[in-house]
Design brief:
- With 647 residues, the protein is mainly beta.
- The strands form eight sheets. A 13-stranded parallel β-sheet has the order 3-7-11-16-21-26-31-36-41-46-49-51-52, with no helix packed on it. Strands 2-6-10-15-20-25-30-35-40-45-48-50 form a twelve-stranded parallel β-sheet, with no helix packed on it. Strands 1-5-9-14-19-24-29-34-39-44-47 form an eleven-stranded parallel β-sheet, with no helix packed on it.
- About 1% of the residues have low confidence.
């Protein structure tokens, strides 16, 4: 499509007759579909719009493609949306990396799926979705500009539908971005997956990874600008029933919403790992997952309720007590919601540092909910916030709730029903504990969050932990979060981790190594950025070479910061001049954006393009703040300064 003209893909299947499309061993790179502008909508590099279509794609890469953009809406790099048809899509070992969909307009998924009629299916196995941007680039006062839905998958069928996602990885994808002056500008729904079902729907996610994704961003002056729902998954089940199953998956370092702006609810965030709404007859299963290190909402500003955050782990919002919700063998740890209060009423407030539960019968069994934090002094429920009214019933059994922080109810906002054999480190109990086997005011003695086996992160029980052999065998799950059999001794352990005896015959697993970064170098330090938009790491020559040594394989985050003038306040540097005393100047570094690199043990290097969040950095001084993470452990911070120059 030319300027302000629609585009329908490099490969396009259309027409009224049923069709099929098979692609294997192929590569689609650097294509641009749709001409930009308000009418330059793009419909996929590959689009299948025939009345009924079967699509099978295997061992195929989609990289650095642009759909819509420059104000034009984008509808997926892969678009399977037959009007009046029932699609069947099967994807295996596909890679979607560095694609841009609907920049400055509205973005609808790296994959856009949904037809009309009952019996639709989408299956995704062994796929990689990395560094895709959907929406973003909000400008001016245009409502919804830059909003994004589904950094990886956008699923919106009309008719009964089954979706299965297995063994797939979603990293560093963005849905939406910073808000502007328009209402809902930059808002984001589902940093990795957006799914809304108008009829009976089923979403199953298993053995997958969601890390570093974002939904929404910092708020602007527009109402609800930058607002985000679901850093990993956003789900809306409609109709009379539906199912959600999330098992054996890791959610870490996802971001939802951001700092508040001038608009009401700007930058607010809901569900660091997942946000789900569902009808009263739904069945929800969340089993053997980890939800950690999410950032939801942020500091408040002038707008009311700006930067508010709810649920660092997951937010479940049902329409009635008859919905059956099972939450078993999960670790919810180190999430952060809300932030410092601003001038706006209610800004920066957090509700439920770990979980926000509303609408349904919730059975929490053998979970570990630890070290989650909320924002202002008026924040509520550091571990669990339960809307525990007539539409909800929440029970805890064999569960640890400890080390969480909030202005009110550091562990729990409201008392729940105890099924016994729980541990809470505050006394008197905030969680309604008092049944047989409950321990209140007791330190559970947990080790650091790490990969202790299995597919997800856990917090191990240390020697002498009161959780060891203290659970109730009645109803105890057959394994722990990692798949270790329960019980190992006479009784199940409390929490998501079952302490197994040391392996014999040399079979014991070595403990994880704390990463250490050395010899960080950047050549040249004066960088001419790569042209146009694109990824932060590339094989192209323009830019600079980053090299360093890591003592172990890890994921290293490079945060780009820009210096600003600040004022010394104690040991900290702040933006505002202190009201009393002599103001001493200091350099305040503010985050511009970040990207990650998968390290090997030893020497590492890559080519930095001078771009962050797919945009060229403006000329001026910057620095990297670099941290490596592996199995819940992280290195110390390392810094390296550089300058962006004009051509």
């Amino acid at each position: 499509g030319g300027s302000d003209l629609e585009g329908f893909g490099v490969v396009h299947v259309g027409g009224a007759s049923p069709g099929s499309l098979n692609i294997t061993g192929s590569s689609f790179s650097s294509n641009h579909v749709g001409g930009g502008g308000t009418s330059g909508t793009g419909f996929g590099v590959v689009s299948a719009l025939s009345s009924a279509v079967d699509v099978t794609i295997t061992n195929t890469d989609f990289t650095n493609n642009t759909i819509g953009g420059d104000g034009g809406d984008g509808f997926g790099v892969l678009n399977v949306t037959p009007s009046g048809g029932v699609p069947t899509v099967d994807l295996e070992s596909v890679v979607f990396r560095g694609n841009t969909v609907g920049d400055g307009g509205i973005g609808f998924g790296t994959i856009d799926f949904g037809g009309t009629g009952d019996g639709q299916t989408l299956t995704v196995r062994g796929a990689i979705f990395d560094s895709n941007a959907v929406g973003g680039g909000a400008v001016g006062s245009t409502a919804n500009s830059g909003s994004g839905n589904g950094g990886g998958l956008f699923i919106s069928p009309n008719g009964t539908t089954t979706v299965n996602v297995e063994r797939s990885t979603f990293t560093n994808n963005d849905a939406g971005g910073p808000g502007a002056d328009g209402g809902d500008s930059g808002s984001g729904f589902g940093g990795a997956i957006y799914a809304t079902f108008s009829a009976v729907g089923s979403l199953s996610v298993s053995n997958s990874t969601f890390s570093g994704n974002s939904a929404g961003g910092n708020g602007g002056d527009g109402g609800t600008s930058g607002r985000g729902f679901g850093g990993g998954i956003y789900l809306s089940l409609a109709g009379t029933e539906g199912t959600l199953s999330v098992t054996g998956s890791e959610f870490s370092h996802n971001t939802v919403g951001g700092m508040g702006g001038g608009g009401d609810h700007s930058g607010s965030g809901f569900g660091g790992g997942m946000y789900a709404s569902y009808p009263s007859t739904a069945t929800i299963t969340v089993d053997r997952n980890s939800f950690s290190d999410a950032r939801v909402g942020g500091d408040g500003a002038t707008g009311p309720d700006g930067g508010t955050g709810s649920a660092g782990g997951f937010y479940l919002n049902g329409s009635g007590i008859t919905a059956a919700v099972s939450v078993t063998n999960n670790t919810i740890a180190r999430n952060s919601i809300g932030g410092a209060a601003g001038a706006g009423i209610g800004s920066g407030v957090g509700l439920g540092g770990g979980l926000f539960l509303s609408g349904g019968t919730f059975n929490l069994l053998n979970n570990t909910i630890d070290a989650n934090t909320t924002g202002t002094a008026t924040s509520v429920g550091g571990g669990i916030y339960g809307a525990n009214g007539g539409s909800s019933a929440i029970s805890l059994k064999n569960t640890i709730v400890s080390g969480n922080a909030a202005g009110e109810g550091s562990n729990c906002a409201d008392p729940f029903t105890s099924g016994g054999h729980n541990i809470e480190d505050t006394a008197p109990s905030q969680c309604g504990l008092g049944a047989a086997g409950d321990r209140v005011g007791v330190n559970p003695l947990l080790g650091p969050l790490a990969n202790n086996g299995g597919l997800t992160l856990t917090e191990p029980l240390l020697a002498g932990s009161p959780a060891i052999d203290a659970g109730d065998n009645s109803g105890c799950p057959a394994t722990d979060q990692r798949g270790v059999a329960r019980p190992q001794a006479g009784a199940c352990d409390i929490g998501a981790y079952e302490l197994a005896p040391p392996a014999t015959g040399g079979g014991q697993t070595n403990p994880p190594i704390t990463p250490k970064l050395t010899k960080l170098a950047l050549r040249p330090s004066k960088i001419l950025p790569d042209k146009g938009r694109g990824p932060s790491i590339s094989a192209r020559k323009r830019g600079a070479t980053v090299s360093y040594t890591n003592n172990t394989a890890a994921t290293t985050t490079f945060t780009v910061q820009r210096p600003h003038k600040g004022f010394r306040s104690g040991k900290r540097c702040r933006a505002k001049r202190p009201k009393r005393g002599k103001a001493k100047r200091c350099t305040l570094y503010k985050k511009v954006g970040s990207f990650t690199h998968k390290d090997k043990a030893g020497k590492n290097s890559f080519h930095f393009t001078g771009r962050v969040k797919r945009h060229r950095l403006r000329p001026g001084r910057y620095r990297f703040e670099v941290v490596a993470r592996q199995s819940g452990l992280k290195s110390g911070k390392v810094h390296k300064s550089f300058r962006i120059i004009r051509q």
